[in-house]
């Protein structure tokens, strides 16, 4: 791997980042085409998943793609779907070399894209910045390998880990800068997930606001019996899709009411006192989601952590303490030994306004 290859692949990864949250069930891919050391084409997967990154970059490059090198963050697709294979498009454009970060685990591709290129005489270099691409593609890879999307758990808490006072007051523990950052995090995920308790307490919109015109994430509420407030969530369905996850005993009246207002409902198996976490995420994976952003509450967070369903955690910690009588950010986990707690590795720490933002990844 040369420094030049790393430099251009880093740019392709930066382009791919723009697609996160906008392209499911497709992967967010970036492509850079280089001719004689000069960038002649750039592309990333467009909202909705099409067109793919490679044809966007090839269209920009035009005739200068002939004899060029294409840097692509994921193996070019090899199957005929709604669009022709990107591997064949690169061959037809006369690209001389293709550098990729990852092999696509999709069984319709999985090495076939690379094989098409090599069969046409294109030089293929694999594995450039593979670790960085793997981290970026964790949602797409999780859906293909495990059958479920990756899950990010967000907690905005006081210094002592509380999300509300003893009376339930929670607006606002963190400052406006942190809340704006949360909207940015929503925008780079396919969906925002909360539990029924949070929906009943806050009747939240769960939309991305204050960032201009953006593709709204799917809003998901997990509620066994669909005993939910029907104001803000229902009124905003034309603005942002709403999916409701419920148990087998959800009342027919509630199902009909939500269906008639445009919400989608999904039956999920139950486990103990709530919906089974693995079953819930598997249903979301089958529906095409790759990246889910969970904003609580405490019981849902506890169930997801206990089931080892959380890949990333994002915390916003404010400089105040609310005490032991306040509401905890995570519900009971029933742990008796530290060794039984799931460990996460610190990824980054930064100040956001007057608060501290820290990101963690499952070890």
UniProtKB/TrEMBL annotation:
Pathway: Cofactor biosynthesis; riboflavin biosynthesis; 5-amino-6-(D-ribitylamino)uracil from GTP: step 3/4; Cofactor biosynthesis; riboflavin biosynthesis; 5-amino-6-(D-ribitylamino)uracil from GTP: step 2/4. This is Riboflavin biosynthesis protein RibD. Substrate binds at residues 170, 186, 206, 209, 295. One of its GO terms (biological process) is riboflavin biosynthetic process. It comes from Phaeovulum veldkampii DSM 11550. The keyword Zinc applies. InterPro entries: APOBEC/CMP_deaminase_Zn-bd, CMP_dCMP_dom, Cytidine_deaminase-like, DHFR-like_dom_sf, Eubact_RibD, RibD_C, RibDG_C, Riboflavin_Biosynth_HTPR. NADP(+) binds at residues 156, 172, 198, 202, 297-303.
